[in-house]
Amino acid sequence: MFIDRARIYLKAGNGGDGVVRFRREKYIPAGGPSGGDGGRGGSIYFVVDEGLSTLMDFRYRRKFVAPSGEPGGSKDMAGRDGEDLEIRVPPGTIVKDDETGAVLLDLTVPGSRVLVLPGGRGGRGNARFATPTRQAPAFAERGEPGPELWVQLELKLLADVGLVGYPNVGKSTLLSVVSAARPKIANYHFTTLQPNLGVVALEEGNSFVLADIPGLIEGAHTGVGLGMEFLRHIERTRLLLHIVDAAGVDGRDPVDDYHKINEELRLYNAELAERPQILVANKADLPEAQANLPRLKELAASRGQEFFAISAATRHGVDALMRRAGQMVRDLKKAEPAAEQVQELVLPKEEPAPLEDFTITEVDGEYIVEGPGLERFLRRLDLNNRETVRYLQTLLAKIGVYRKLAEMGIPEGATVKVGELEFEYME
């Protein structure tokens, strides 16, 4: 089954907690603190795997959570870092923010390993809080939660050449005779229900990837037929082979078909209308085609495009067409800049706010202290630990919270709330 869209949840691992430990060596009766730091949580990476061609792996698994870091140990030993989580995606995968739809990553280079979410930092052990005046701290720091993100994955096939044209003009037949691909072929519209890829091997030792894009009819850009499902797969192709039924077997005019398909490409993406094309008149061996071939050749000339008359069923003219397509692909590749290999996802990041940036609001006689930097800091403290609370109170005095409360005229015994901590104000 061909799956080219998915919505998944990503969460990096939490940092491990720092621990409270003290030295207990035989000949050191009053040993100092020795609690180690927690390990960093596992990070999440996207790896571009050339062996994948769909997003099928994400049909049943939608949540990816990296392991957390381990708590610190005694003797200043840091906890083990959480193992990184690698998520394999096919080349051509676009990563979008699920909430905003903004494109975060465009993964096109096979073998790329891109950092998406870094693991949370480990908490500091009690050894890190020792000072000349606090020689035996009995508290430590919690690990930082790993960041999380819902994303949309969207696959745009990486093919050198795309086959476009109305249904039943012979695109699938052409793909089957020039490659090892075996698409379903039948004499009715929308036989092809998914894009098919094939590798065309040329005698010069060169090759290129050919994609059969189904579902293009008039109105495709608005969702008529299967157009909206698969038009995106044309966007990455370097060259289009525009296939028309020169014999008009279904009663349509091939010249009219040509104009309508190009208009659909233009309406979907204006750049597609300017993509190099070769006009290919298929079924040219049928008697009904003879009157249309001069018209089609003239049409191609007027658009500055090359023209080939072929019969996919008998292979007449097919080899010459493939050789020319291969040469054009090679020329187009040479003119392209080298693909940039992305190393990591650059999300909009807010710099951590300083602890000193806080506000105090009086609500019904209670004084509420708030600040993004302070709140982030508090989440890493165990406020059930008395020493932690004393450490926090010292910090509040240092950053000016008590001074500000005094300036506001706080009465003695009034309640002060700082995050989950609640205490009575005493001068």
Main features:
Rossmann fold; alpha/beta; 427 residues; five-stranded mixed sheet; Spo0b-associated Gtp-binding Protein, Chain: A; single chain; 9 helices; GMP Synthetase, Chain A, domain 3
Polypeptide structure, described:
By secondary structure, the chain is α/β, with parallel strands linked by helices. It folds into three domains: 1-155, GTP1/OBG domain (Spo0b-associated Gtp-binding Protein, Chain: A, Distorted Sandwich); 170-335, P-loop containing nucleotide triphosphate hydrolases (Rossmann fold, 3-Layer(aba) Sandwich), CATH 3.40.50.300; 359-424, GTP-binding protein OBG, C-terminal domain (GMP Synthetase, Chain A, domain 3). 20% of the residues lie in helices and 22% in strands. The chain has helices at 171-178, 227-230, 254-268, 270-273, 293-302, 318-335, 372-378, 386-399, 401-407, and strands at 5-11, 44-48, 63-65, 85-89, 93-97, 103-107, 113-117, 148-155, 161-164, 196-201, 207-212, 239-245, 277-282, 306-309, 359-363, 366-370, 415-418, 421-424. The strands form four sheets. Strands 10-11-9-12-13-14 form a six-stranded mixed sheet, with helices on both faces. A hairpin with a 5-residue loop joins β10 (196-201) and β11 (207-212). The longest helix has 18 residues, at 318-335. The relative contact order is 0.11. Residues 183-193 and 217-228 have low confidence and may be disordered.
